[in-house]
Amino acid sequence: MSKDQTKDLLKFLKPFGDDTTALVMWLREFAWDLCPQANELIYDNYNAVAFGWSPSDKVGHTICSIAVYRSNKNVHFGFYWGSELADPDKILLGKGNQYRYMLVTDRKKFPKAYISKLVNEAYVNCLSKVKDPKQITHGQTIVKSISAKKRSVKAKPK
After folding, report:
1. Which end of the chain is more exposed for a tag (fewer CB within 10 A), N or C?
2. pLDDT in tens, 21-80
């Protein structure tokens, strides 16, 4: 499985509608192009569909990720270790110990060059977290979890 393998992901995104799915799949193409040797890890959980790129099959090695939330259809482009990245323009949201993200509402406003620099930095950072080189694999799409019970997708307020 690889970048071209979209069947499961499209099935998981179906409840979010065409506009959200189109935005998410555009972000996916952007991320895959920046991380062609990484693996895509997909989680279809009760509160969100989330997927990210990792040089292994471990979420703790994630370079970047995309999440779409069931409660409000918000789309995040995030960094699992975002608190460890330089963000000179201070566009990343989050104040926790680890995860930082950007809320994505429109692909025309998405700062591709800036995010590309952050993805490159995140890639180097995540590789430093891989302790056993045998864990590194390349270019797979791996469905990691599917929650049996999901919250319903709510329409965004207009």
Report:
1. C
2. 999 999 999 999 998 888 899 999 889 999 999 988 888 889 999 999 998 999 999 999
Q: How many domains does the chain have?
A: 1
The amino acid at residue 143 is V
Pick the closest to residue 143 from 22, 45, 36, 32 (CA basis). 45
Is 151 domain-assigned? Answer: no
- The structure's pTM equals 0.86
The model's pLDDT over 140-151, given as tens digits with 9 standing for 90+, comes to: 677 776 766 655
The range of the structural domain enclosing residue 105 comes to 7-146
Contact 35, 136 (CB under 8 A): no
Tally of CB atoms within 10 A around 101: 21
Q: How far apart are CA 89 and CA 67, in angstroms?
A: 22
Which residue from 31, 90, 43 is spatially nearest to 68, judged by alpha carbons?
Answer: 43
